Amino acid sequence: MRKLIIGILLISTMFCANAQDKSKDIKYTFMYYNLENLFDTENDPAINDEEFLPDGTKKWTEQKYQKKLANMSKVLYSIASAQKAYPTIIGVSEIENRRVVEDLISQESLLRGNYQIVHYDSPDLRGIDVALLYRPDQFTYEGSESFKLVVPERPDFLTRDILATWGKIEGELFCFYVTHLPSRRGGQYGSAYLRNAGAASIKQHADSMKVVYPDIKIVIMGDMNDNPTDPSLYEVLGASVEEPSDVAEGAFFNPYLKMYRQGYGTTAYQDEWSIFDNMIVSESLINKGELTLLPSVTSDKYYGNIFKRPFMVQKRGQYKNYPQRTFSSNNFMNGFSDHYPVFIMIGK
Would you say residue 1 lies in a domain? Predict the structure, then answer.
């Protein structure tokens, strides 16, 4: 155990040294991960968290909670190891509160990332929120706000708020949006207006930021509950081209559009793969300033990355070859998430 801890600290020191090198080839990682119901074990009377209690249907004990934290940190550390640096920005969803995020970044393998948290409580009935983690040595935080997903047809609709966080990397201004758009409950098409409204809310906020800061670089990340070809992303956000060279001035580019059309996926349902986990960037991140979107770490054909390792894949049973999840119904699987994380790279 002592040798393992020393090894982790040595590798982590290498990560930080690499990240602080301001040479021309420096690269920054932005990632998003749906953590699949990261709940603590304490009852919060203000939300519907009863199934994630020791006496709830999930029998959610402190032991299971600690295993979940260890599993989540293993994935994040594996990404850091592969990239030889902790991610600069991590967007997360399906978290109950700030405390669970604090517990996550306090895991031994993540401590050297020195992550800071941006989090607001949302009005979601289940109490799940989104949050953003950032490395203060790479990202200079300037401000944030959480704003409501506005559904004109249903002004009383309650869901996760959208998180906006802005600040600078090497003097260039960025705004990161973290979202978890409404589910497909009621059917894909019957519920599409909810996700379209969510995308419209983000676009309106992003457009207002661009009016004040014309060269701002925007990254929209989250579980969209839609694929890159669905109207919320393809039409409302207008992320409709496969190559960054084709993106129009002021428009958005989805690195996962081409990947989805060629059969990639981040989550599966009834043996059909989807890319619900998207990271969409503004044209300014491609054509303005020195920092720009870089090709995938595995292929110059793509600009998005899906992180998948054998330990994250279900080996047998109903969900064989799917992401290894935490629960199958109410049975604890000691897994990770029913989504794979995604990330993009930027650099000079």
Answer: no
Q: Residues 194-204: pLDDT tens digits?
A: 999 999 999 99
CA distances from 235 to 161, 227, 253 (A): 22, 12, 12
Cα–Cα distance between 313 and 325 in angstroms, integer?
9
Q: Please tell me the distance from the alpha carbon of residue 92 to that of residue 117, in angstroms, as a whole number.
A: 11
pLDDT at 13: 47
**Which 3 state secondary structure label does DSSP give 73?**
helix
User: Looking up tokens 């059309």, which residue turns up?
Assistant: 261
Q: Rounded to 5 degrees, what angle do the CA atoms 27, 32, 36 make? A: 150
pLDDT interval class at 126 (50, 70, 90): confident
Identify the domain containing residue 110 by its residue range: 28-347
Written as one letter, the residue type at 203 is K
Q: Is residue 277 part of a domain?
A: yes
User: Could you give the CA distance from residue 288 to residue 129 in angstroms, rounded to a whole number?
Assistant: 32
Residue 18 lies inside a defined structural domain of this protein: no
- How far is 198 from 160, CA to CA, in rounded Å? 10
Of 222, 259, 250, 252, residue with least CA distance to 236:
252
Which residues 6+ apart lie within 8 Å of 339 measured at CB? 33, 34, 36, 223, 266, 267, 276, 277, 323
Contacts of 221 (CB under 8 A, 6+ apart): 30, 31, 32, 91, 176, 177, 178, 179, 278, 279, 280, 342
CA-CA distance, 69 to 183, in Å (whole number)? 25
Helix (H, G, I), strand (E, B) or coil at 308: coil
Our count of domains for the chain comes to: 1
Q: Is residue 22 part of a domain?
A: no
Look at residue 277 and tell me whether its pLDDT is greater than 90: yes
Query: Nearest Cα to 326, choosing from 32, 34, 98?
Result: 34
Q: What is the pLDDT of residues 134-157, one digit of tens each?
A: 999 999 999 999 999 999 999 999
